[in-house]
């Protein structure tokens, strides 16, 4: 090679000449840093279907939960309390015998008590790694799908407000565990009849058992839980108990997406079941 000769950029079959030396890389996905392909993507399958269904499912849940949270009615029918309203932290709650009536907020709180407690499970789900992927793709098209260029001109990730708040996911995990414990107590109270007598089981008890099982499975399959159980260990062999727990959480974590959706549906179903009982649509069938 002659002295002073500069190497030529490698040209691929797509016509790309590699990154432009004058490009900083902050101009989004359609700048000179992208391969020189005219089409935004080369996928021929229905790649848009998954984000569309995801967006629809999340939208329907938001609409339903908003309606029920602001309703401030029909959330208790002995012995069942809606998971949207538990624990009830306001003075204007319905009296739930043996239930989670903890009037930490006095008479000055006049709107729905569900708005106090829902911030914790919803905050946990909003900052969840899976749900981030779901609504980033479904609502913001960031990116819309694998190998499909997003339409945005810039990308800052989760380094700016408000997305930087996603980093508090672990703290919402602690709150979610507390909420799951309270919902477990509510499920136990479901083994009473309408007269608060123990040793009975209705169809609502089954609904609540399924819901709490899915709530715990989703909560414990969280990535933060996996790190808490087995993170910061240099030698798993010296911590066999934590290693076994880490393995169990890891198996659940592999089903995190399915558990996220199943628990979302189950918590809405449990609330709707209580609503139907409260408005007198039918009487809770007693199994024994």
Question: What can you see in these coordinates?
Answer:
The chain has 288 residues and is mostly helical. It contains nine helices and four strands, in the order H-E-E-E-E-H-H-H-H-H-H-H-H. Strands 1-2 form a two-stranded antiparallel sheet. Strand 1 and strand 2 form a beta hairpin. The longest helix is centred in the N-terminal third of the chain and has 23 residues. The protein is globular and about 70 Å long. The N terminus is likely disordered.
Straight-line N-to-C gap: 90 Å
Unreliable spans are 1-27
Strand content: under 5%
- Biggest β-sheet, characterized? 2 strands, antiparallel
| Main structural class | mainly alpha
Mean pLDDT: 84
Strand line-up in the sheet with most strands: 1-2
Number of helix segments?
Answer: 9
What's the total number of strands? 4
Shape: globular
Helix coverage percent of residues? 40-55%
The helix/strand series, from N terminus to C terminus, equals HEEEEHHHHHHHH
Alpha-carbon Rg, integer: 25 Å
Briefly, what is this?
By secondary structure, the chain is mainly alpha-helical. Helix content is 45%, strand content 4%. The longest helix is centred in the first third of the chain and has 23 residues, at 49-71.
């Amino acid at each position: 090679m002659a002295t002073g000769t500069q190497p030529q950029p490698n040209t691929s079959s797509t016509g790309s000449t590699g990154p432009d030396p004058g490009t900083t890389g902050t101009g989004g996905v359609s700048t000179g840093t992208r391969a020189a392909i005219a089409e935004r993507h080369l996928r021929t399958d229905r790649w848009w279907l998954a984000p569309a269904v995801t967006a629809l499912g999340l939208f329907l849940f938001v609409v339903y939960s908003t309606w029920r949270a602001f309703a401030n009615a029909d959330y208790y029918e002995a012995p069942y309390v809606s998971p949207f309203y538990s624990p009830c932290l306001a003075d204007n709650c319905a009296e739930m015998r043996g239930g989670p009536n903890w009037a930490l907020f006095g008479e000055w709180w006049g709107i729905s008590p569900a708005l106090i407690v829902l911030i914790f499970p919803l905050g946990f789900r909003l900052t969840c790694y899976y749900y981030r992927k779901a609504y980033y793709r479904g609502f913001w098209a960031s990116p819309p799908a694998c190998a499909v260029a997003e339409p945005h001109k810039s990308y800052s990730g989760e380094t700016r407000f408000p997305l930087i708040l996603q980093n508090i996911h672990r703290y919402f995990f602690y709150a979610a565990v507390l909420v799951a414990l309270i919902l477990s107590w509510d499920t136990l109270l479901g083994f009473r009849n309408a007269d608060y007598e123990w040793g009975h089981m209705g169809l609502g008890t089954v609904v609540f058992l399924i819901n709490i099982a899915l709530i715990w499975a989703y909560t414990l399959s969280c990535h933060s839980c996996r790190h808490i159980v087995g993170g910061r260990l240099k030698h798993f062999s010296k911590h066999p108990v934590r290693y076994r727990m880490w393995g169990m959480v890891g198996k659940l974590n592999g089903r995190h997406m399915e558990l996220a959706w199943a628990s979302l549906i189950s918590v809405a179903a449990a609330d709707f079941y209580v609503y139907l009982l409260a408005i007198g649509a039918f009487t809770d069938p007693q199994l024994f």
